[in-house]
């Protein structure tokens, strides 16, 4: 794509590609609600990963239930897809990656909702028109 066309698209849409990436990053990780949510999910994942090293009981693998529950609405689709593709033999890397992607997707949704509610409360919400 040439620079003339790129600048024309940027002028029409009002934002550049880097600006969109910054906005998505800000909504996903750089606000209070998203950061708190990702901290909870990351902490549960760290505990689940360390549990087999610290505990030798038969219930050590049940620690992975918590990260899955914290990411549940989105992780439900990941679990369904894994069951559909691999049957009962879904690889561990798929579930761990699914937990990470589900956490990021839900963090984006939480950040968007938080920003929208905050802007509405402050009276900065504009109408499309």
Task: Supply the key terms.
129 residues; mainly alpha; single chain; 77% helix; elongated
Summarize the structure in short.
This protein is mainly α and 129 residues long.
Q: In words, what does this structure look like?
A:
There is one protein chain. The protein has 129 residues and is an all-alpha fold. 77% of the residues lie in helices and 0% in strands. The chain contains 6 helices and no strands. Helix 5 runs antiparallel to helix 6. It is elongated, with a radius of gyration of 20 Å. The relative contact order is 0.12.
Outline the secondary-structure elements.
Elements: H1 3-13, H2 17-29, H3 32-54, H4 65-70, H5 72-86, H6 92-122
Helix pairs in contact: 2-6, 3-6, 5-6
Structural classification: mainly alpha
Number of helical regions? 6
Tally of extended strands?
A: 0
Proportion in helices:
over 70%
Give Rg in angstroms. 20 Å
Separation of the first and last Cα atoms: 30 Å
Report the major sheet.
none
The percentage of residues in β strands lies in under 5%
H/E element order: HHHHHH
Query: Quick one: overall form?
Result: elongated
Low-confidence segments, ≥5 residues, pLDDT <50? none
Q: Overall pLDDT, averaged?
A: 82
